[in-house]
């Protein structure tokens, strides 16, 4: 069991208000990702749930029980830190066993659980090493191992992959997702990387300046962003925004078009917007064109990798009429 | 230090300092060893010449030597015990966020800046004097008999004074070690359900092990040669009750004017210091490789 409810949670450090007012319902077994730019309060929110910070006002409930004032140990949550926070003077085995030892579990049972965790995470041959002798990915697994042996109500991950190289990050992303499918325990995962958020989450909380901008499934966020911030944050490369007369044609203050929702042509006049290629980023599978459109500014356009473009090439763009996002003056999405 | 040229330059530049240091160390040591095998007493200037092992037999054979050796070990051990345990406690306290932290830390460090003879005098007259010392007044106020510390507990009194002086050093080193512990590790331990005592035992103490080792090593080197505090307070007495090896060398060589025997005592002191150092490195040095 592990449903987490936040009710009007507020957190201030002295005069500075980090989180003005957040209410969230996280269901048992869900994989929820907190995503947002740095300084948006996502880590603070996680630490509030963990009990490492006190809430200024509001309530936090675990399985319906109010734990707002409870110390971290009492809450039955496990956390994986960005720096892994392994105990350097203990072997991998002792690191994983530490929470069980603190819970005064009999040694035989501890051994069994450590063995099981090590098998789940492929750590078998490293059990007697010190954390220093492990690679980044292995340390990450030990930190996860230390979390799973406790059989917590929920796992909290604080940017756990940010210290790994790109290839390993993709691997660990898969491993954590698999782990979630296997354990079916509630997981809250904090990241600034929208790709991690999109690929791992059941539901995503997009945070900005301590406020929840939108809470929904990845595709919901992609297809129906609540406002301009979410539209710009979710999706890679970023959505293109156009203000002014061009937007007014669509009865909106501004419109947004994702790079993948353009039809591209090199035939003169075969498109709504004419532009010049500034930079072409070729990934092989795709090419991202940065096109300077006359009167509208720089736009990113995704095209397949078949055609080669050079700096200065003339291109003609047509936004997909059904996939134009419209926003009002306050940045809120306009429904059709 | 990559090229041959920079290496040669480095050696040339360092040579004067190294040579001076070597002379500074080697010449007095050689002279001490030389004197220790000579009949050389200022009271009896007619008796000269090679003494063989006579001086050594005289120094080591004397019962005062055994007592001085025991006193030295008690002094070093006692001060280490007080400073390491007390320093750990003080460091834990000073690590807490409190108002006026900066001033408080300077106050805690300040005894270290007081010169040993001055510190000893403050304790001798200000605190431990049975007539007008603070402790004497305190005992009287409580209706107790004032204690004449230096007569009744001479070695213990010296230990207290030296510990007072070295406590700041231990506190300072241990505090910096404490502050280098990553906040996330503490928090992880907290999440793992470790209470304050367990966090100290399993996380903080192992983290400080290296700093404690350094404190023990450095302090031992200095504590083996404690002199000023004894000279100012008890003068090594009553009898030999508060005489350590260093003070015994002084009593033999300077007070009794027997340069030969004093030198022999000095050589023995050097050997003992080295033995202690070797044992210490063996016992606690393994913490340093970690």
Automatic annotation (TrEMBL), chain A:
In alphabetical order, the GO MF annotations are: ABC-type maltose transporter activity; ATP binding; ATP hydrolysis activity
What this protein is called in its record is ATP-binding cassette domain-containing protein
Report the superkingdom from the record: Bacteria
The record's annotation in SMART domains points to: AAA
Q: What is its main location?
A: membrane
* Record localization: Cell inner membrane
GO cellular component: a single term: maltose transport complex
Q: Which residues form the ABC transporter domain?
A: 4-234
Pfam families in UniProt: ABC_tran, TOBE_2
Q: Topology relative to the membrane, per the entry?
A: Peripheral membrane protein
Keyword field: ATP-binding, Nucleotide-binding, Transport
Automatic annotation (TrEMBL), chain B:
Q: Which SUPFAM superfamilies match?
A: MalF N-terminal region-like, MetI-like
| Keyword check for Transmembrane | yes
Q: Which GO terms describe its biological process?
A: transmembrane transport
GO (cellular component) term, any one: plasma membrane
Give the keywords, sorted. Cell membrane, Membrane, Transmembrane, Transmembrane helix, Transport
Using the record for this protein, list the coiled-coil segments as residue ranges, or answer none: none
The residue ranges crossing the membrane are: 12-37, 73-94, 106-123, 155-178, 208-228, 259-281
Q: Which Gene3D superfamilies match?
A: MetI-like
Q: What is its main location?
A: membrane
Classify the protein's membrane topology as the record does.
Answer: Multi-pass membrane protein
Where can this protein be found? Cell membrane
Keyword Phosphoprotein applies: no
Q: Which domain of life is it from?
A: Bacteria
Q: Where is the ABC transmembrane type-1 domain?
A: 69-280
Report the sequence similarity comment from the record. Belongs to the binding-protein-dependent transport system permease family.
Q: Which protein, by its recorded name, is this?
A: ABC transporter permease subunit
Organism for this UniProt entry: Devosia marina
């Amino acid at each position: 069991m592990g449903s987490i409810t936040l009710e009007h949670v507020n957190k201030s450090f002295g005069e500075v208000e980090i989180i003005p007012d957040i209410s969230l319902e996280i269901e048992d077994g869900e994989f929820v990702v907190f995503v947002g730019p740095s300084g948006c309060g996502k880590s603070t929110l996680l630490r509030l749930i963990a009990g490492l910070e006190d809430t200024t006002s509001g309530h936090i409930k675990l399985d319906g029980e109010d734990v707002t004032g409870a110390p971290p140990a009492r809450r039955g949550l496990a956390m994986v830190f960005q720096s892994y926070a392994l105990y350097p003077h203990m072997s991998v085995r002792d690191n994983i066993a530490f929470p069980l030892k603190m819970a005064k579990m009999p040694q035989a049972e501890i051994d069994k659980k450590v063995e099981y965790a090590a098998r789940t995470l492929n750590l078998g041959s490293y059990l007697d090493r010190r954390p220093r002798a492990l690679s980044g990915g292995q340390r990450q697994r030990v930190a996860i191992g230390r979390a799973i042996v406790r059989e917590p109500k929920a796992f909290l991950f604080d940017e756990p992959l940010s210290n790994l190289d790109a290839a390993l990050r993709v691997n660990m992303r898969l491993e954590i997702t698999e782990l979630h499918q296997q354990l079916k325990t509630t997981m809250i995962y904090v990241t600034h990387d929208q790709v991690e958020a999109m690929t791992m989450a059941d539901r995503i909380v997009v945070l900005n300046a301590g406020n929840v901008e939108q809470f929904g499934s990845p595709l919901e966020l992609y297809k129906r962003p609540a406002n301009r911030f979410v539209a710009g944050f979710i999706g890679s490369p970023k959505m293109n925004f156009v203000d002014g007369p061009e937007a007014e044609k669509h009865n909106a203050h501004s419109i947004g078009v994702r790079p993948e929702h353009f039809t591209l042509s090199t035939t003169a006049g075969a498109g709504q917007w004419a532009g010049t290629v500034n930079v072409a980023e070729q990934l092989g599978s795709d090419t991202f064109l940065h096109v300077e459109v006359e009167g509208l500014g720089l736009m990113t356009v995704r095209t397949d990798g078949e055609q080669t473009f050079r700096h200065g090439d003339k291109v003609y763009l047509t936004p997909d009429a059904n996939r134009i996002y419209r926003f009002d003056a306050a940045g809120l999405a306009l429904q059709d | 230090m990559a090229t041959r040229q920079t290496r040669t330059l480095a050696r040339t530049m360092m040579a004067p300092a190294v040579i001076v240091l070597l002379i500074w160390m080697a010449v007095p040591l050689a002279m001490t060893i030389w004197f220790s095998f000579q009949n050389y007493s200022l009271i009896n200037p007619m008796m000269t010449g090679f003494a063989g092992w006579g001086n050594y037999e005289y120094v080591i054979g004397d019962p005062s030597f055994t007592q001085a050796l025991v006193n030295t070990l008690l002094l070093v051990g006692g001060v280490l015990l007080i400073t390491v345990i007390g320093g750990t406690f003080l460091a834990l306290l000073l690590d807490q966020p409190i108002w006026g932290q900066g001033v408080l830390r300077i106050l805690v460090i300040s005894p270290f800046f007081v010169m040993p003879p001055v510190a000893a005098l403050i304790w001798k007259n200000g605190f431990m004097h049975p007539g007008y010392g603070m402790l004497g007044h305190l005992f009287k106020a409580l209706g107790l008999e004032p204690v004449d510390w230096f007569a009744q507990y001479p070695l213990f009194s010296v230990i207290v004074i030296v510990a007072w002086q070295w406590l700041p050093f231990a506190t300072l080193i241990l505090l910096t070690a404490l502050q280098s512990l990553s906040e996330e590790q503490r928090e992880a331990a907290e999440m793992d359900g470790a209470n304050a005592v367990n966090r100290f035992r399993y996380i903080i103490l192992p983290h400080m092990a290296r700093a404690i080792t350094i404190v023990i090593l450095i302090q031992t080197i200095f504590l083996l040669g404690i002199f000023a505090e004894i000279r100012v307070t008890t003068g090594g007495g009553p009898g030999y009750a508060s005489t350590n090896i260093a003070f015994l060398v002084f009593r033999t060589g300077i007070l009794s004017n027997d340069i030969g025997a004093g030198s022999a005592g000095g050589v023995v002191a050097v050997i003992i210091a080295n033995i202690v150092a070797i044992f210490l490195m063996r016992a606690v040095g393994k913490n340093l490789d970690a």
